[in-house]
Amino acid sequence: MEKVNYKDTLMDRLGIKITEMSEEQVVATMPVNEATRQPHGILHGGASVALAETVASSGTDHLINKEKEYAVGIEINANHVKRKTDGFVTAVGKPAHRGRTIIVWDIRIMNESGELICIARCTMGVFPKKA
Q1: Which residue is catalytic, options 53, 67, 75, 115?
Q2: What is the model's pLDDT at position 2?
Q3: What pTM was estimated for this model as a whole?
């Protein structure tokens, strides 16, 4: 797995760690703590979305030719289906569509028991680098 420097980024601040990277899936974890909870003490939906987009962005970066292309998120949506107040969540992202210029990711965020916390879909645009 390629080493990416997340120091002083949103991923660093939220404690997101990529634990698996392949062409088939990306797995990442994130703690549920003071950095990722909203004022009512539950996992902030925005933190879940940040985790989901991190998975999609990292996975797309792994799939493309970085010498000739770059990728950016162009759309993301999420459904938050279960609350989480502490511990960790794990996101598993899989490419649902892998085109030349668009890659769509299905990301499922689960608690330690494997229960679904959030389901997200992220569309990544792949663009040529200018010479």
Answers
A1: 53
A2: 63
A3: 0.95
